[in-house]
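Internal QA ticket QA-208
Title: Verify multi-chain structure generation after dependency bump
Assignee: T.L.

Test input:
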Amino acid sequence: MDLRSGYLDSWTMSPAPDPSLFDKVVNLCKRRGFVFPSAEIYGGFRSTYDYGPVGVLLLRNVKEAWWRSMVQLRHDVVGLDAAILSPPAIWEASGHLQNFTDPLVDCRNCRERFRLDKLDDLEECPNCHARGSFTEARQFNLMFKTYAGPLETTSAEVYLRPETAQGMFVNFKNVLETSRKRPPFGIAQIGKSFRNEITPGNFVFRTREFEQMEMEYFVPPDEAAKWYDYWCYERLQWYVDLGIPADQLRLRAHDEEELSHYSTATSDVEFLFPWGWDELEGVANRTDYDLTQHAKASGESLDYFDQALGERYVPYVIEPAAGATRTAMAFLMAAYDEEEVTREGQGQGETRTILRFHHRIAPYKVAVLPLSKKAELQAPANKVLELLQPHFMCDYDETQAIGRRYRRQDELGTPYCVTIDFETLDDHAVTVRDRDSMAQDRVPIDALLDHLVPKLA
Ligand code: GAP
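Actual output:
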């Protein structure tokens, strides 16, 4: 679906959010090895999560799909991987030391802390229900500070980056001089960011350590409005192309008081989470704010001389800024489905849980399943696995009844299962089972790659 034609209509017909989906997905994540609470054997470490064997594949696929669309398939965007530790000078110039704050209130009764702007009722504490118990709001800076080197002195203070963006701005000159790119062009980066969130929560939606996928697109100032519009739609389309239904996505423009200190216009790509619409990604017009600030603070000129026009200007920046971990969660929510089916091969009714991931997002693309653990099936199964592994991320599973193994792969979102059975020994063919339709095709092993590659490309 091309969102430029008629996407507005699809929002008005959006389904109601399903609050029960949240627990179902969180439970599935733990049960199947997507996401584990961090430091679980020590009782957990609030709001940090570890990505398990399947979750790490999902997250890599999200990042890979973003990189493919933002860097690989374009000629005007290059990549960067900047340091996480950074000197206070960067954050002084960017305005984060001054402005990257949330309003914090304490409940005098139960001592819990809350973000003022996230409270539903400014009079009643959501934890202990005391009324009128909040302190005056004070601004709390979200950046994590630590020390570089052995001395814990002011001069050794450094920050963990709260956004990847500043790495792109402080390297603007380096990239311009080495990449032969000219505005309009972009610098893209994927990496960890850290924010000392007052109220982390909703699983991996808001955490203190998370991954971002950001791109700074440097444009002539008079083209900023055009590129802002372009990137809003481009980014919305990306989620649809990867299987999120258009009626679960919308673009929402920030009003004046919501804008960040550096932005003149921002629109959020929002997803219909189980608790309602919430932000997946922000697309902002950051103007020439960051380059001007860093030029002033560093003494380096960060402008661009356009030889064709004979003009010197500081580029404006359009920034699509997404969260990789938050996006992975949205893909999980959107892909989750349950359907009543007859147990394959047994005629009994049951509920089938499926993650209907787009094949690019699915952790495993193919599962290789010998029908039984018998030695004579292991050799051909291993040969099939070796045939497929250079092309696709494969799972291999040889225990349990085949029906249960299919259900497990459905819950992992694996698009195809390849079953090696005793007939394989005679006909040198395998059964390819489709996750969504459960249809089964008999395919000669010699033709297996030709069968799967076009479906999974
Ligand atoms: N450079 C601009 C910037 O960082 P942002 O809206 O603060 O903008 C961009 O962050 C994206 O990063 C958000 O849309 C969200 O997907 C993700 N993000 C931000 N804070 C997060 C957190 N605490 N936990 C998980 N993801 C977060």
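Spot checks passed. The radius of gyration is 25 Å.
Status: verified.
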